[in-house]
Write a structure and sequence with these properties.
- The complex is a heterodimer of chains A (307) and B (116).
- With 307 residues, chain A is an alpha/beta fold.
- Chain A has two domains: 4-116 and 240-306, FAD/NAD(P)-binding domain (3-Layer(bba) Sandwich); 124-236, FAD/NAD(P)-binding domain.
- Chain A is built from seven helices and 19 strands.
- In chain A, strands 1, 2, 5, 6, 7, 8 and 19 form a seven-stranded mixed sheet that branches. A five-stranded parallel sheet of chain A has the order 10-17-11-12-13, covered by helices on one side.
- The radius of gyration of chain A is 21 Å and the shape is elongated.
- Chain B contains four helices and four strands, in the order H-E-H-E-H-E-E-H.
- Chain B has helices at residues 14-23, 39-51, 68-71, 103-114, and strands spanning 26-32, 56-61, 84-89, 92-98.
- Chain B has a four-stranded mixed sheet with strand order 2-1-3-4, with helices on both faces.
- In chain B, helix 2 links the parallel strand 1 and strand 2 (56-61).
- The longest helix of chain B has 13 residues, at 39-51.
- The chains are: A alpha/beta (307), B alpha+beta (116).
- At the A-B interface, strand 10 and helix 4 of A face helix 2 of B.
């Protein structure tokens, strides 16, 4: 693999695809290496209604347009790969894949994104798709006339709980704290819904069932008391975690495992930038990822001009 | 009638589905929608169809009435997450999975059931 790309982008979510559009349009030879689904968190969003200048659009459609835009400017995309090794120091950076191929670049933009957190408790892997779901839009209709549990206390949890009341007869929200982190309007909508009940200051400890989910065990955190709750389904919305495990020790991460960048999206390593859900920031939106992807590509371009 | 927008072959009728699985020794058919749990599986299939020449890949719309034989398959009893992904060898179901699957999970099944 002798080609040395001007820019290698790791990840093909909103930030990575935007960086790909800007870098390739600037005539930089650009390669995107993507481990997950193209579009990242965008494809997990049924509808995006607040992307300026675009009427309500399905997440996968917006992701598809961004991908086609990047490709139209000459950006190469290699997806469903597994990155096994980074060498980010030096003038030419190297990224090695599971099949032994090594890609080289003069700059690297890290946009590995994040992924939905799982609970990592007993029965979760075995009963995934058999009562345990991470997407109400996808699987809600399987629970028509049934009782379900929603785990989480953020916007996704409360909004999806309300959406699930279109199918389920009862939705029980289990949340670890005594208050919700969601926006006030989402809390209000959930609280006024007669089909929704709340179990606060509690966490799930296990999923049980013979071939499909039948019950969960819930622990009340202040007392440690455990109870069983019969349920047909559980939807898990407990936030996202940055995909930065393989970057630990290579670039500076904060205590939430997010990549630390400056306002130009530069990491602590020369020629290595980062953008999107993996960086240290408060707000995670498609628009913020797009903005950071733009800045990262422009910063990479400037770096290449000056070095 | 097509229900999906992918770069994979989309089966449109029950008759075509039957023909597809009986005429191909090893077949993987993913029955889903254009949703967040399904798209990653389609992405993996698109990648693998160039590499795994011993397997034929296809999709079918979950909302297509012609997909009833998959939705109601005994192997899918208890499934409550799309996509329903079926693996056929010589016309018989050898594995079925529910909900999102990773590249590693899918290649694991393909290698185990159809050989590397």
């Amino acid at each position: 693999m002798d080609e040395v790309f001007d820019v290698i982008i790791v990840g093909a979510g909103a930030a990575g695809l935007t960086a790909g559009i800007y870098a390739s349009r600037a005539k930089l030879s650009t390669l995107i290496l993507n481990e997950g689904a193209i579009g990242g968190q965008m494809v997990l969003t049924e509808e995006i209604a607040n992307y300026p200048g675009v009427e309500t659009v399905k997440g996968y459609v917006l992701a598809g347009i961004m991908k086609d835009q990047a490709k139209s400017f000459g950006c190469k995309i290699k997806s469903n790969i597994k990155i096994t090794k980074y060498n980010l120091e030096g003038e030419v950076k190297e990224i090695e894949l599971g099949d032994g191929k090594v890609f080289k670049g003069r700059s690297v933009i890290l946009t590995p994104g994040g992924r939905p957190r799982s609970l990592n408790i007993e029965g979760e892997d075995e009963l995934k798709g058999k009562g345990i779901s991470y997407c109400a839009t996808c699987d809600g209709d399987f629970f028509t006339g049934k009782e379900v549990v929603v785990v989480g206390g953020g916007n996704s949890a409360l909004e999806e709980a309300v959406a699930l009341t279109n199918y389920a007869t009862k939705v029980t929200i289990v949340h670890q704290f005594g208050h919700f982190q969601a926006f006030e309007h989402a809390i209000h909508e959930a609280r006024k819904n007669p089909k929704i009940e709340f179990i606060m200051e509690s966490e799930l400890r296990g999923f049980y069932g013979d071939g499909h989910l039948e019950k969960v065990v819930i622990e009340h955190l202040p007392t440690g008391k455990r109870t069983e709750l019969k349920t047909d389904g559980t939807f898990i919305f407990v936030g996202y975690q940055p995909n930065t495990e393989s970057l630990d020790g290579l670039v500076t991460l904060n205590n939430r495992r997010e990549i630390v960048v400056d306002s130009d999206m530069r990491t602590n390593i020369k020629g290595v930038l980062a953008a999107g859900d993996c960086i240290n920031k408060r707000y995670r939106q498609v628009t913020t990822a797009v903005a950071e992807g733009t800045i990262a590509a422009l910063s990479a371009s400037e770096f290449l001009r000056n070095n | 009638m097509k229900f999906l927008r992918t770069n994979l072959h989309e089966i449109e009728s029950a008759e075509e589905l039957q023909k597809f699985i009986s005429e191909n020794e090893n077949a993987m058919v993913c029955c889903g929608r254009m949703g967040p749990m399904c798209l990653p599986v389609y992405d993996v299939m698109e990648e693998l169809q160039e590499e795994k020449t011993n397997v034929k890949f296809a999709v079918i719309g979950f909302d297509n009435p012609e997909a009833a034989s998959i939705r109601n398959a005994p192997e899918c009893r208890g499934f409550m997450g799309i996509p329903f992904t079926m693996y056929y060898k010589n016309g018989k179901v050898v594995q079925a999975t529910s909900s999102i699957q990773s590249m590693q999970q899918i290649t694991g099944i393909l290698d185990a059931k159809f050989g590397e």
